[in-house]
Amino acid sequence: MNLSVIIPIYNEKSTIHEILHRVQATNLASEIIIIDDGSKDGTREILADMNGVDKVRVILHEHNQGKGAAVRTGVQSAQGDVILIQDADLEYDPRDYPALLRPIEENLADVVYGSRFLGGPHRTILFWNMVANKLLTFMTNILYNNILTDMETGYKVFRRDVVSNLHLRANRFDFEPEFTAKILKRKVRIYEVAISFNPREYGDGKKIGLIDAFEAVWTLLKYRFMD
C-alpha cells in the first residue's frame, strides 16, 4: 500500500523543517507532497531546497487560495493508493500514522478520521474552539445520520479511489465539512481512531476563525441537499 502524505502550507517557515522531519521519521510515506499556498514569510525559499529530495515534491500556488484549494491540488497530484492530509503547524503528530492506517490496511474502512475527542493525549484546548467543534460535529450527525466525534479533524486518511469522482469545490477551511458531507452521502465506510493533539493558539499563528464556523454550517446544509 503506497501512502501519499499531503502537506498544505501557508506561512509556516518556523515549523516546516520539523514537520517534514517527523513525517519522514515514520518511514511510511511513499511520497510527500507539499503545497505552498502563496506563502510570503520565507517558506517558499526554504521549500526550494526540499523539492526532489527524500521523496518530497513541492507544488507552488502563485497566490493564497486557502487550505481546501491546496488540499485539492495535492489530491489531484497524489500517486499513492492511500492519501493522508498532514497540517504543517505541529498540532498533529505523525507518530499516529500506524493507528490511522490500520483500519484501511485491515479492510475495515475506506476513510479514517483521527479524532481529538476519543480520549487520546492532548494539551488543553481553547474552550470555545472545543464547543464550536462539537456543535459542528453534532450538526453533521443530525443532518447525515452518523455518530462521528470530530468532523473538523485535520487528520483525514482515505483511499485515493474514494475521492476520484467526489468533485470537491472548497477553497478554505470548508473543505472539512464538504469532504465529510460528500463521503457520508455516499455511505463510504468511515472509521475513527483516537489521536494525540497539541493545539496552538492564535498568537502562534492559528488561522481558522469565527467566519470559518459559519461557512462550515452553510456547507453542511448546502451539501445535504445537493452534490
Describe the structure.
The longest helix has 18 residues, at 127-144. This protein has a single domain (3-225), classed as Spore Coat Polysaccharide Biosynthesis Protein SpsA, Chain A (Alpha-Beta Complex), CATH 3.90.550. It contains 7 helices and 7 strands; from the N terminus they run E-H-E-H-E-H-E-H-E-H-E-H-E-H. It starts with a strand and ends with a helix. Helix 5 runs parallel beside helix 7 (210-225) and helix 6 (175-185) packs parallel to helix 7 (210-225). The radius of gyration is 16 Å and the shape is globular. By secondary structure, the chain is of the alpha/beta class. Helix 2 links the parallel strand 2 (31-37) and strand 3.
β-strand number: 7
Overall pLDDT? 91
CATH superfamily: Spore Coat Polysaccharide Biosynthesis Protein SpsA, Chain A
Category from helices, strands and their pairing: alpha/beta
Helical amount among residues, as a percent range? 25-40%
H-E order:
EHEHEHEHEHEHEH
Structure annotation, total helices: 7
CATH top level label: Alpha Beta
Question: Which fold does the CATH topology refer to?
Answer: Spore Coat Polysaccharide Biosynthesis Protein SpsA, Chain A
CATH architecture classification name:
Alpha-Beta Complex
- How much of the sequence lies in strands comes to 15-25%
Outline the low-pLDDT stretches: none
Main β-sheet description: 7 strands, mixed
Q: What separation lies between the terminal Cα atoms? A: 30 Å
Strand order of the largest sheet: 3-2-1-4-6-5-7
Q: C-alpha Rg, in Å?
A: 16 Å
Total separate domains: 1
**Shape call:** globular
